[in-house]
């Protein structure tokens, strides 16, 4: 798929091509065009991070215990919604892992919704971005499992309760866990790419009214996919940190 350069990507390529090339070379990656090492999905992901860093202090200053505004009520609603689900899925130790769940939800949601804004694209419709978040989730829940139960305790979760079939179960669980980042990637990537393409197609065919319905559908899909990604992260962490006696 031919990728046109967005204005923010062009800005990064103009002023920050050198640092990008150096980072890619350290990772053993050679860009096709050293003058344009920044791809759109990389630029959009960085833009979301910058928006997070800029918005967090501005929004927090307006929070009030006595007179909560509309923005505060929205974030409190999201917090309560995710908190209750995390508590049910992970258990009484959910507070240690809740920042990760909330960060994943908001990060994926903002990347999904970015494509609605003219001159921007959703970075999640490029497989590299969902893959990166999926691998980070994979590492996170395994590290959480090792910290909670130790290496041997975490590995025992892969063997099942029946000793006779433990080697067989261990092999199946290893394969299942390795597939998890792939399934997380494909689910998010495929849904966002399909939604983006459908919306762009109808905007090209009928520029008025009808595309609004598909933009609304795109927003709905963005929320659903962010929630599913965060929810599966909770499930994986909950499975990893459960104690052996449970």
Give structural attributes:
246 residues, mainly alpha, 8 helices
Structural features, described:
- This protein has 246 residues and is mainly alpha-helical.
- The protein has one domain.
- It has eight helices and no strands.
- The chain has helices at 7-15, 17-26, 40-61, 70-90, 98-113, 128-156, 166-205, 210-241.
- α4 (70-90) crosses α8 (210-241).
- The longest helix has 40 residues, at 166-205.
- The N and C termini lie far apart (49 Å).
- The model has no long low-confidence stretch (mean pLDDT 89).
Poorly predicted segments: none
Most strands sheet: none
- On the 0 to 100 scale, the average pLDDT is 89
Distinct helical segment count: 8
What structural class results from the helix and strand content? mainly alpha
Compute the gyration radius: what is it? 21 Å
Order of helices and strands: HHHHHHHH
Number of strands: 0
Envelope shape: globular
Gap from first CA to last CA: 49 Å
Percent helix range: over 70%
């Amino acid at each position: 798929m031919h990728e046109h350069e967005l204005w923010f990507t062009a800005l990064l390529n103009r002023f920050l091509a050198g640092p990008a090339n150096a980072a890619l070379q350290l990772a053993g990656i050679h860009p096709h065009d050293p003058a344009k090492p920044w791809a759109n999905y990389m630029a959009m992901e960085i833009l979301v991070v910058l928006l997070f860093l800029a918005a967090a202090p501005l929004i927090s200053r307006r929070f009030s215990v006595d007179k909560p505004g509309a923005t505060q009520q929205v974030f409190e609603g999201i917090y309560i919604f995710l908190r209750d689900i995390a508590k049910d899925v992970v258990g009484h130790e959910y507070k240690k892992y809740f920042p990760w769940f909330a960060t994943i939800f908001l990060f994926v949601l903002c990347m999904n919704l970015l494509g609605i804004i003219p001159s921007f694209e959703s970075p999640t419709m490029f497989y590299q971005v969902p893959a990166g978040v999926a691998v980070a989730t994979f590492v996170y829940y395994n590290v959480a499992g090792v910290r909670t139960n130790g290496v041997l305790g975490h590995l025992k979760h892969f063997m099942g309760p029946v000793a006779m079939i433990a080697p067989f179960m261990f092999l199946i669980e290893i394969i299942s866990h390795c597939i998890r980042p792939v399934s997380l990637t494909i689910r998010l990537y495929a849904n966002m790419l399909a939604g983006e393409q459908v919306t762009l197609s109808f905007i090209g065919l009928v520029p008025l009214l009808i595309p609004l319905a598909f933009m609304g559908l795109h927003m709905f899909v963005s929320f659903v996919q962010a929630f599913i990604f965060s929810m599966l992260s909770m499930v994986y962490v909950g499975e990893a940190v459960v104690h052996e006696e449970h």
